[in-house]
Amino acid sequence: MVLASAALADLVRRTTADLGDYPLGWRDRAGGDTELRSGAKLVGTDDYEVWLLCWPQGTSVSPHDHGRSAGAFAVVAGELTELRWPAGRLVARRLDPGQVVAVPCGTVHDVISPAGLAYSVHAYSPPLSTMSFYDDRGRHVLRTEAVADTSSDFDLAAI
Fold first, then answer.
1. What DSSP element (H or E) covers 85?
2. Rounded to 5, what percent of the chain is helix, strand, coil?
3. Long-range CB contacts (< 8 A, 24+ apart) of 147-153?
4. What torsion, rounded to 10 degrees, do the Cα atoms 129, 123, 93, 66 define?
5. pTM of the model
6. Pairing state between β 64-65 and 130-134
7. Per-residue pLDDT band at 87 (split at 50, 70, 90)
8. For residues 137 and 69, what is the distance between their CA atoms, to the nearest angstrom?
9. Which residue from 6, 100, 149, 159 has the highest number of Cβ atoms inside 10 Å of its Cβ?
10. What is the residue-averaged pLDDT of the chain?
């Protein structure tokens, strides 16, 4: 069963709340590289997946979509900025801890860590298989890449 972005947003909210109860060390599971974005898959099923990402200051993805997947994400710690290009116009919004963003299938966006280290939880349904990357205006596809399936580092369902 494929989950819509609203259901993914609820899943992200629950997962973020569960992280607050997780013993110290959940941040280490996301990597913690000081220069590169890193992460760990928290949950992986046939229908959806959930990731914990670590964003050092200044890191971003670049304008992209999630292929055939819908998504949602929430900031756990720090601050992120999401960029979108509705009707060809750049719209940026600051996201603080607890804020949840739905990303419907086909949406082109980017996520940036503008000020210090940040952590976020992301969910996708179906699990990511491809991502397309766009020019800096979010208009033209530059390349499409397969997304490698990474084994779960730990599973919040087991907590």
1. none
2. 15, 40, 45
3. 147/67, 149/44, 150/40, 150/41, 151/41, 151/44, 152/40, 152/41, 152/42, 152/43, 152/44, 153/29, 153/40, 153/41, 153/42
4. 10
5. 0.87
6. antiparallel
7. confident
8. 21
9. 100
10. 85
Say if CB 71 and CB 5 are below 8 A apart: yes
| 105 contacts 69 by C-beta, under 8 angstroms | yes
Q: What is the pLDDT of residue 156?
A: 34
Q: What are phi and psi of 105, to 5 degrees?
A: -50, 135
Q: Are 119 and 98 in contact (CB under 8 A)?
A: no
**How distant, in Å, are the alpha carbons of 83, 117, 153 from that of 44?**
27, 25, 10
Query: What whole-number distance in Å separates Cα of residue 127 and Cα of residue 16?
Result: 19
- DSSP character at residue 122: E
